[in-house]
C-alpha cells in the first residue's frame, strides 16, 4: 500500500511540474481569456501565436499586456476575408465586433465569424514599422507642438498609431474627409506633421454634435484628450461616437463645412452636404453614373460650372422619371425634390433618396 501511495504522489508531482511553465507564463500577464464580458467567468491562459479553427471559441473578454494585439481574420458577407486588430484589453469581444462592417454572420454570432486569430506583442506582429520618436522634443505630450514636431523626418502625412506613445501598428491617411469608417478606428496616438491640421466631429452628451481641431504636433495619448472633450461614450468606445475626421492642409482646408466656391468650380466634382445651407458632412463625386444611391442623404448641393446632374427616380405608380439640375448652388435639395413628384411625395414619410435609382453626373 505504501508503494502505491508513493507512486500516486510521484505521479501528481510529475503532472504539476508539466503544467507549471504554463501557469507561470500566465502569471507574467501575457494573455488571459474569460468566458464572460468584463473579465468574468472561467478563464484560460494562452501564449502569443497564431490559432486556426476559432469558430467554436466562446471567450467574451480578455486581458493582454500593454503593447500586445489580437489580429483576427474574419469571414465577409460578400465573400473572402478581412482582418481587424484589437490592441490591449477587450471588455466584450461581441460588442467590439460591431465596429466591423459586413461580417458574414453578424456580431451576435461572435467567434463564428472568425477564421483565425494571431496574438502578438510589440514588434512580433505583421512587420509593420513602429515609430520610435527620439527625445529631442522638449515639449512632447498632449499639446500641439508646432515648434518641434515630426521626430521622424520622413513623415509626410499624419501618422496614427494603434497604441499610446507612438507604438503599435501605424496607419497614414491622405488629406480628405473620413465620414464612413472612423467608428471602426482604434488609434490611440497620432503625429500631425507641419502643414496639417485634423478636425474631429463627434456626438457628445445628449447626442449634441461637437468638434475640435488639432494642429501640428505629437499627441501621445488620444484617449486622454478625448476624455476631456466630452464624448457620449467612455473608454475604448470613443471612436464609436465619431461622425467625421477631416484631415486637411493648413490654410487650404475647409474644416467648418462652408462651401468653397472657387474650389468647387476648379474641379468637375459636385458636392453634396448632409444638411441645408451647405452644412454637415460633405461628399464629392466625379462625373459618372452612380446606381447605388438609395443610401445618399444630400440635402444641399453645389454643381460647378461645366457639369450637370441628372436624377432618375420613381414617381407615383412606380413610374420612372428624371429631372436635371444645371450648374449652381442649391441650398435646399428637398424643396426642389418635393416639386418633382417622387413616389413618397404623397406620403407622410417623404424620402426622395429612397425613391432614387440613379444619379448621372455629366461633364458638359
List descriptors.
alpha+beta, globular, 36% strand, Gamma-B Crystallin, domain 1, 364 residues, 6 helices, 4-stranded antiparallel beta sheet
Describe the structure.
The chain has helices at residues 2-27, 93-96, 222-229, 261-266, 333-337, 352-355; strands at 31-36, 40-45, 49-52, 61-64, 68-75, 81-87, 114-121, 159-163, 167-172, 176-178, 189-192, 196-203, 209-214, 217-219, 242-249, 270-275, 279-285, 288-290, 300-303, 307-314, 320-325, 328-330, 356-363. Helix content is 15%, strand content 36%. A four-stranded antiparallel beta sheet has the order 3-7-5-6, with no helix packed on it. It is α+β, with helices and mostly antiparallel strands and 364 residues long. It has three domains: 25-124, Sandwich (Gamma-B Crystallin, domain 1); 159-249, Sandwich (Gamma-B Crystallin, domain 1); 261-363, Crystallins (Gamma-B Crystallin, domain 1), CATH 2.60.20.
Summarize the SSE layout with pairings.
Layout: H1 2-27, E1 31-36, E2 40-45, E3 49-52, E4 61-64, E5 68-75, E6 81-87, H2 93-96, E7 114-121, E8 159-163, E9 167-172, E10 176-178, E11 189-192, E12 196-203, E13 209-214, E14 217-219, H3 222-229, E15 242-249, H4 261-266, E16 270-275, E17 279-285, E18 288-290, E19 300-303, E20 307-314, E21 320-325, E22 328-330, H5 333-337, H6 352-355, E23 356-363
